Amino acid sequence: MNADTIRQMIETGLPGARAEVQGDDGVHFEATVVCAAFAGKLPLARHRMVYATLGEKMGGEIHALQLRTQTPEEAAA
Q1: For position 43, which CATH number holds?
Q2: Which contacts qualify for 42-47: CB closer than 8 Å, 24 or more apart?
């Protein structure tokens, strides 16, 4: 698993999302995801939305994913 594949999965699963993913060891990753659909949602709900795009890879090929989730307005602030 590589960071670019994870980015593509997140951006495909959350239409309009913009993701930046980093991870050097192939199992631990950090991602910043900016998506308008996060508006009005608590952080836990936002994280669940991102995890849903990765499906069974979470806890399998992706051992850990540290997330920062923002709306476009939050990202611009």
Answers
A1: 3.30.300.90
A2: 43/69
Residue 11, CB half-sphere, CA atoms under 13 Å: how many?
Answer: 12
Three-state secondary-structure class, residue 76: helix
Is residue 19 within 8 Å of residue 55, measured between CB atoms?
no
Look at residue 70 and give its three-state secondary structure.
Answer: strand
Domain range for 30 is: 3-76
User: Do residues 33 and 68 lie in contact, with contact meaning Cβ atoms separated by under 8 Å?
Assistant: yes
Tell me how many domains the chain contains. Answer: 1
Could you read off the pLDDT of 19-75 as tens digits, one per residue? 999 998 988 999 999 999 999 999 999 999 999 999 999 888 898 999 999 999 999
Query: Among the listed ranges 7-11, 13-17, 24-28, 34-38, which one has the minimum average pLDDT value?
Result: 24-28
pTM score, two decimals? 0.93
